[in-house]
């Protein structure tokens, strides 16, 4: 099993072929979303290629922004080695898939992709509606410490498991504290400053999670591409354990707002 822990992935350098592929994906997304009266009712902001303002007024809109989400998913797919049309389609599980832009893109590229997202616990109408418009149906599940993931869909294991900038390793997200954004921000700040915070997973929890992926989710030569927010605070001990266990750790420096 190959695991790449990344934080803030650098932008994929597009070749002419990649540029053409990205343009095709943007056109496909536009054609699909333009058929939705609800999406069109969002107005010009949903077409703005910029990221978004980190304010309460605009926080939800990030789920609906076409070009921002397609470009982000494109860079993620490149990092995971999923852009190349060579070879048979791959089975991919995306943990914390959100509204499903990454899953939708992989399906357009010919892969068999499945998202996993705790939809029933979210109070985000925008996220739920975008998932419906994109036509992706995530498995409704919360990734928790020392709990196995649901069995692979159809009983067939995945070639690749991905997760992009999610915070499932923050236990406060599972105890009702996610409703209090101030506490969430404190946890993330502690992590960024390299402080020990017991609300994040310890080595034993990470070991259980990766063992579950290896034994129950992945094919023999499958791999994981895991983006951990604020990688430095993955922790020296956890990082050493990961490297000793054969995990290859890479760092990247392109920041996008989550």
TrEMBL record:
InterPro entries: SAM-dependent_MTases_sf (IPR029063). Gene3D superfamilies: Vaccinia Virus protein VP39. It comes from the Eukaryota. The lineage of its organism: Eukaryota, Sar, Alveolata, Dinophyceae, Gonyaulacales. This is Methyltransferase domain-containing protein.
């Amino acid at each position: 099993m190959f695991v790449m822990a990344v934080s803030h992935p650098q932008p994929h350098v597009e070749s002419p072929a990649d540029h053409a592929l990205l343009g095709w994906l943007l056109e496909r997304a536009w054609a699909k979303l333009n058929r939705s009266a609800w999406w069109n009712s969002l107005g010009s902001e949903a077409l703005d290629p910029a990221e978004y303002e980190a304010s309460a007024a605009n926080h939800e809109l990030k789920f609906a922004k076409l070009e921002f989400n397609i470009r982000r998913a494109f860079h993620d797919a490149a990092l995971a080695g999923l852009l190349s049309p060579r070879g048979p389609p791959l089975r991919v599980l995306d943990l914390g898939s959100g509204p499903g832009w990454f899953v939708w893109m992989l399906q357009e590229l010919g892969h068999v992709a499945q998202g996993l997202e705790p939809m029933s616990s979210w109070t985000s109408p925008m996220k739920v509606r975008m998932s419906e418009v994109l036509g992706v149906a995530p498995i409704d599940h919360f990734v928790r410490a020392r709990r196995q993931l649901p069995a692979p869909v159809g009983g067939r294991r995945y070639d690749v498991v991905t997760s992009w900038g999610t915070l499932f390793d923050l236990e406060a997200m599972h105890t009702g504290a996610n409703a209090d954004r101030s506490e969430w921000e404190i946890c993330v700040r502690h992590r960024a400053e390299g402080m020990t915070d017991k609300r994040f997973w310890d080595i034993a929890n990470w070991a259980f999670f990766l063992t579950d992926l290896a034994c129950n989710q992945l094919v023999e030569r499958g791999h994981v591409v895991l983006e951990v927010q604020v990688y430095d605070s993955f922790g020296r001990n956890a990082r050493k354990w990961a490297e000793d266990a054969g995990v290859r750790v890479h760092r990247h420096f392109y920041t996008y707002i989550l």
